[in-house]
Amino acid sequence: MSPASTPQIAIIGAGITGLTLAAGLQARGIPYTVYERAARNHHQRPGTAAVAAAHTGGGGAGIGLSPNAERAMGLLSPAVAEAYEQVANPNGEDYFQWVDGVRSPEVYFRLFVGEGMFRGCRRADLLEGVLRGLPEGRVVFGKALREVRGREDGGGRDGVRLVFEDGTEEVADAVIGCDGIHSRLRTLLFGPESKATYSQKYSFRALIPMDQARSSLPARLIHLTTTRYMYNGPGAHIITYPIANNTLLNTLVVVSDPNPVWTPPVDSRNPHVGKVAVADEVGAAFEGWHPDVRAIVGLLPRGGMDKWAIFDMVENPVPRYHGGGSGGDSSETSDVGGGAAGKVTCLAGDAAHACGPHLGAGAGFGIEDAYLLAELLQAAVVVVKDVSGSESEGDKKPGGTVGARLAAAFEVYSDMRYDRTQWLVKHTRDAVDLFQWKDRELSRSADGFGREITWRFHKIWHYDIEKMVEEAKQKMEARR
Q1: Given 37, 205, 405, 456, which residue is catalytic?
Q2: Which of 67, 114, 325, 345 is the most buried (most CB within 10 A)?
Q3: What domain range includes position 117?
Q4: Known catalytic membership, residue 205
């Protein structure tokens, strides 16, 4: 690939979507740099814990990746798949199992997830593994994006100029925003009206040492620590599964909030996090639940926990995932959104379609995004050899410049991903209503609940990712 036709890609954000995209570009020989707002942590692999927290809006403790996500990782980059294999914890059974948290600790519905599938891990461990596989210097920490402008460097080439909060600037041929739920690049593209909003749900997350969990629970309940369980009930639910080679029990508690607006705690460094005492707020959410399920709640740390507000984009969906159209925020910058730089700008992962954790699919959909983007960017910069065997740009027709091909790739990406990902945003909210008994009769019926949750999970899991990419490439070819 000749230097003249090789794009330089800037990735904003080093969360799961950003780092897996970087690995996909690395595997395809496309130059990139990742810019991450979190600072370098000198006590461990740079920044992974801070990155995990910064990108999730939920603490970034444990994460489960569904079958579609595993397939996408393997297609995106062998290095990503290997990083996941190194940290993925198998479940004790190949079923997702649900418990009526008020009636009984017995399972009332179970769903086959696939042999050895839907494994869990610590989010920071996965980030660290992917980061380790990238060349030194490709991920730059402490870079909070301020604005994006046209390149204007006199090089005769379209592109973007990135301006960071520390006053530094960088140039690239295109920029992809993987900067999470509260994406700065999304605001630059579509204005403050595109911000994620409070879903009236908040969560508590904990990694409980497995020895502690098993010694604290009655013997008849120890089996609940061996695989993936969800405990459903009025206004709350709990999910648990083992991670870290069965040494930790990942525990997520989600509670409904009657308040439509999240009020940030005054003394919090993160406006979406507050501190609570477990004995007070968490315990109160499970009054009247079965004693055995309350025993699971009793495993949570006694000294207080972080309370994370869950934001999503149900109320304020963006109209597309690429820039270059109308609707940019001209008060922020003159070039992004409807300007020239917007044409080589796009969003991926939570920056594009933030949703809650309730279907366990947000990270996986970000990896699907990364796979499609990597394939389309490779197609956009294809170089062919002339009869003499020397390299030249593969398309000299109108629209054949590097910038035009990148813009076409982003438009095709948006067209291919929009409906599926927006479906997830909406149905993640529908799923939490099922888990938290908005329709009590339906949610407590094994047949009704099973029917409603099965088709949603199957739509997520049984997706033909390779067909998606093939159709996208055909659309790219049709634009030549």
Answers
A1: 205
A2: 345
A3: 3-478
A4: yes
